[in-house]
Amino acid sequence: MSEVEKSLGSGLEDDRLGTIFAWQARFQEDLVARRGLDFDERTWIQKQALALIVELGEVLEAAQFKWWKNPQPWDRAHLHEELVDVLHFYVAMCLAAGMTAEDLFQGYLAKNQENFRRQAGESAKPGYAAPSARPED
């Protein structure tokens, strides 16, 4: 068991999103203390959003988006590393906004259900309904 796991207590392994939020919160606290950072909530969110955009650019690079270049061997491990970096900054932004893992989970569920309703044409928001299955020939 790592030092982080020990300090966060038992039972977190069953709540993976909660564990991610807890570890990121601990990292943020350590970062602020070690670096003497003192940003307000809005500035933290702006900085995290900018870092997130940079990391998404690195995801694009890892996914070899440049169609004008010769393809290289696929480095899935590198892509995974960049996606984890994206998650770090995304969770840090959630924390800066006062969002918990449960808030994110519940918000995701609600939005996912709405997305299904939109695709089915059952939402109050027009313009999302996907066409019905292809008509018989």
What does this structure look like?
Helix content is 64%, strand content 0%. It is mostly helical. The protein has a single domain (16-119), classed as Helix Hairpins, CATH 1.10.287.1080. The longest helix is centred in the middle third of the chain and has 22 residues, at 41-62. The N and C termini lie far apart (61 Å).
CATH topology: Helix Hairpins
Low-confidence segments, given as residue ranges, are none
CATH level-two architecture: Orthogonal Bundle
Name the helix and strand elements from N-terminus to C-terminus, one letter apiece. Answer: HHHHH
How is this structure best summarized?
The chain is mostly helical. 64% of the residues lie in helices and 0% in strands.
List the helices and strands and how they pair.
Elements: H1 3-8, H2 16-35, H3 41-62, H4 76-96, H5 101-119
